[in-house]
Structure formats: C-alpha cells, structure tokens
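Might you be able to review the protein record set out just below?
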Amino acid sequence: MPKGDWALRAMDVKDMDAAKDLLREAGLPTDGVGGEFAAGYVLAERDGAIVGMAGVEVYGRSGLLRSVAVATSQRGRGLGRLLVEDRLHWAAANCLRAVYLLTATAAATGFFSKLEFATIARAEMATEVQTSEEFSRICPETATAMVRRLEAIC
C-alpha cells in the first residue's frame, strides 16, 4: 500500500486490548489510557489492524498529549505526524489553548520539536495538567516537558 494509506477513527472501548498491545510494543505506559478520556483518542487502522494511536486528555483549557504510538511496520512513513496533527486539530476545535506532553526519550523530543512543541520546565505545565496521572505518577520526574500553544477556534 502507498504511504499514508491509513484510516483514522475514534477509539472505542472494544479497542482497548489492541491499543494497549500497541503501546506495550512501543514501550509506552498503558496506565490510564482511555477511561474517562476515551473521546480524545484516535486510532489508525490499516488492513483492519490498529497500527497507530494518539490521545489528548483535557484538563480545563489545556490538553495532555499521550500514547502516541506507531506499529514498527508503519514507522518512518508519516503516521506519527498525522496522528499528532489530528489531535492538535481536535484540541483546537475543543477550545484548548495549549497541548502539553511528557517524554522520556531524546528521539521523541526531537520528533515533537519538529512539530513545533517547545521544551519547558515541568513546573511551567498548566496547573490542571499537573493533576494528571501521567504527570504525577506515570512519567518519571526526569521526563522532558513540552508545550505547543494553539489558536483555539472557539
């Protein structure tokens, strides 16, 4: 199939096992995925298999981007960028002013920098985002904090 031959769709509760398998394959945490924030997650499918995912958890007027994962077979083809851009558009359409993230790898920091995320101190993350499980329990204190400011469309 040609590059970009993926279908994006909202995550459903029936997708949880496959989504967690993808996260484990990517070495990402599965704690807190979906749940009350399921509406902010999108999946990418190819030939009926889930090959990518990304989510935005909403905290006030801020979002927390997490669980950006792409199956090994699909990496390097633009799917990660597509998923992140989709979630940024979703965040702006849902009146969010900024999207934050935490990452523990230099490769991910470089990837998100190319998508106009800026590195910040953890203390600079929105107060509401600091109440998240991702911030307070799941990601190590050594994780890099990043932000992308948005122009909300509402």
